[in-house]
Write a structure and sequence with these properties.
Blueprint lengths: L7 H25 L5 H19 L1 H6 L1 H5 L2 H21 L2
Helix pairs in contact: 1-2, 2-5
Length: 94
């Protein structure tokens, strides 16, 4: 019997792999586009990767929203660190 729906585990694995591909190709883009600012490349990769992950994980995020909010401080620290990393990484490459 074939299923058209992915399990939550499979969707999680796919989300991580897809984000990894996007993250891994931004270095190539950065080297092939010298006219584009490093911060713009970092912000774009962070934004696109984040949006795809959120879209693919939407159902689980909505189901666990209250559980996630219990850890507001950890969530805020993680969000700041994840936002700062690609910007710092790509700006240090040039």
């Amino acid at each position: 019997m074939l299923y058209n729906r992915y399990t939550s585990y499979q969707l999680g694995i796919f989300s991580i792999l897809f984000a990894s591909v996007l993250w891994g190709t931004t270095g190539t883009v950065a080297s092939l586009a010298p006219d584009i600012s490093s911060l713009a490349i970092g912000a774009f990769s962070m934004g696109v990767g984040g949006l795809f992950q959120a879209a693919l994980s939407r159902k689980q995020l909505l189901n666990d929203f209250k559980k996630i909010l219990i850890h507001k401080r950890k969530l805020a620290i993680s969000a700041i660190a994840l936002a700062a990393y690609p910007l710092a990484f790509y700006s240090s490459m040039r």
